[in-house]
Amino acid sequence: MEVFKKDGKITFEVHKESNKIMIKQAVEKIWNVKVDNVRVMAVPGKTKSFGRRSFVSPDKKKAIITLKKGYTIDLPGHFETMGVNSAAKEKELPLEEK
Question: Which residue, 1, 60, 59, is CA-closest to 30?
């Protein structure tokens, strides 16, 4: 699952046949939060080639979810996917002295 956080909005990759109502209900039930807005976009597959063979990657659907004020979703492992180790972020490392 691809997840990105920015400006209080969270982006999820969702099932292709899901709609806004289903996504909103699922997020509210799973994380016990209130959803303010759901935006959905369909991302078509890209044509790729591997040697002489070409194929089309599968289509995707993404949902951008805005939570109501005061609600947050804590996703463990989120920082590892972004390239920052969460253990290193929690631990304050001393600055090097010159």
Answer: 1
| pTM of the predicted protein model | 0.68
The domains of the chain are located at: 3-88
Give residues with Cβ within 8 angstroms of 18, minimum separation 6: 26, 61, 63
CATH number 3.30.70.330 given to 3-88: yes
Question: Looking at the predicted structure, is the pLDDT value of residue 14 above 90?
Answer: yes
77: region left, alpha or beta (phi > 0 left; psi from -120 to 50 alpha):
left
Q: SS3 for 74?
A: coil
**43-to-14, 19, 47, 81, 92 alpha-carbon distances in Å:** 11, 15, 13, 21, 39
CB 49 within 8 A of CB 80: no
